[in-house]
Specification:
This is 50S ribosomal protein L11 methyltransferase. It comes from Sporanaerobium hydrogeniformans. Keywords: Methyltransferase, Ribonucleoprotein, Ribosomal protein, Transferase. Helix 7 links the parallel strand 8 (181-185) and strand 9 (203-208). The protein is built from 12 helices and 14 strands. It is 36% helix and 27% strand. The protein is α/β, with parallel strands linked by helices. The chain has 2 domains: 3-118, Alpha-Beta Plaits, CATH 3.30.70; 158-321, Rossmann fold.
């Protein structure tokens, strides 16, 4: 297997934040380089040396960084897209610049080549019992009764290859959502919004904190010939903007939230507020070790978690808002 060497440049203060984000994305192996490690080494070992390894000498002048290796396949490239978007959001929020450059650099391949080369891994494939997902540059000639969902993710998360997306779609197709109002929080490429409309949802409101993702979601909804009257796409942050939260409204029949564990936990009361009593929630982006934590958080907010599905240590939870 080939690997994408990926380096994230940050600061001493940013190390904990960035490694935490990596863990939420399911990246558990990384190498940290920090000039403070050189100083600590000298403090612990003394300063009189006849010889010091060249690599150790380099450490004292290196920028603070985190190096990871992602599989050069569709899963790895989806993780890389989400990582790029996450770092962009973090940099926008880091007004004081405490977390450094938050710059991502690819080893052995330049950005432009990667932007084109990853497409070779994106071929039509089936998800669940009802969907075929394909990029616009690939043909699908097999006769099928499945819905053909066309996605061009560009720089947004959501090709359908990621386990969390598949888990959401597989739970979604088991619900009766014809005629229902759906809210897609953290819509990315819009893939779950499109899936919901294909399954008969009356209307979908798609939301992402990143403007680029919102634009891509709108493009993909249009490419899949969804009527403009059946969807709305917004860019905004419900955790920081109360007016935006009010604008989105309430009494939705179903909320989709394929995000990460910490954001789901932070949004638990908001998710409750968006739903009608008896409304359904499907949420993923949760690594296995955080599943119980997220489940407990949702239950304290008034949800009954009735479904837990898993793929390759990624978890999706299905829940219903209890009627008071």
């Amino acid at each position: 297997m080939n690997w994408l060497e990926t380096t994230i440049y940050t600061s001493k203060q940013g190390l904990e934040v960035v490694t935490g984000l990596l863990l939420q994305l399911g990246v558990t192996g990384f190498v940290i380089q920090d000039p403070d490690d050189y100083d600590e080494f000298l403090t612990l070992q003394g300063t009189t040396w006849d010889y010091m390894d060249e690599e150790m000498e380099k450490l004292k002048d290196c920028p603070t960084s985190i190096k990871i290796y992602l599989a050069d396949n569709m899963q790895g490239n989806e993780t890389l897209i989400e990582l790029k978007n996450t770092l962009t959001r973090l940099k926008n929020e880091d007004i004081e610049g405490l977390y450094g450059d938050l710059r991502l650099e690819l080893g052995n391949i330049n950005e432009e080549d990667w932007a084109n080369n990853w497409k070779k891994y994106f071929k039509p494939f089936e998800v669940g019992k009802h969907f075929v997902i394909k990029p616009s540059w690939e043909k699908y000639e097999k006769v099928t009764e499945r819905y053909i969902l066309e996605i061009d993710p560009n720089s947004s998360f959501g090709t359908g290859q990621h386990y969390s997306t598949q888990l959401c779609m597989e739970q979604l197709e088991k619900l009766e959502i014809k005629g229902q109002r759906v809210l897609d929080m953290g819509c990315g490429s819009g893939i779950l919004s499109i899936a919901a409309l294909l399954l008969g949802a009356k209307e979908v409101t798609a939301v992402d904190i990143d403007q680029n993702s919102a634009d891509i979601a709108r493009d993909n909804l249009q490419k899949n010939h969804m009527s403009e009257t059946t969807f709305q796409v917004y860019c905004g942050n419900v955790l920081e903007d109360d007016d935006f939260t009010i604008q989105l409204g309430s009494q939705y029949d179903l909320v989709l939230a394929n995000i990460v564990a910490d954001v789901i936990i932070a949004m638990k009361e908001l998710l409750k507020g968006f739903l009608r009593p008896g409304g359904q929630l499907i949420t993923s982006g949760i690594i296995g070790e955080r599943a119980e934590e997220v489940k407990c958080a949702l239950e304290t907010a008034g949800f009954k978690v009735h479904t837990l599905t898993e793929k390759n240590d990624w978890i999706a939870l299905g829940a219903v808002l209890k009627e008071e």
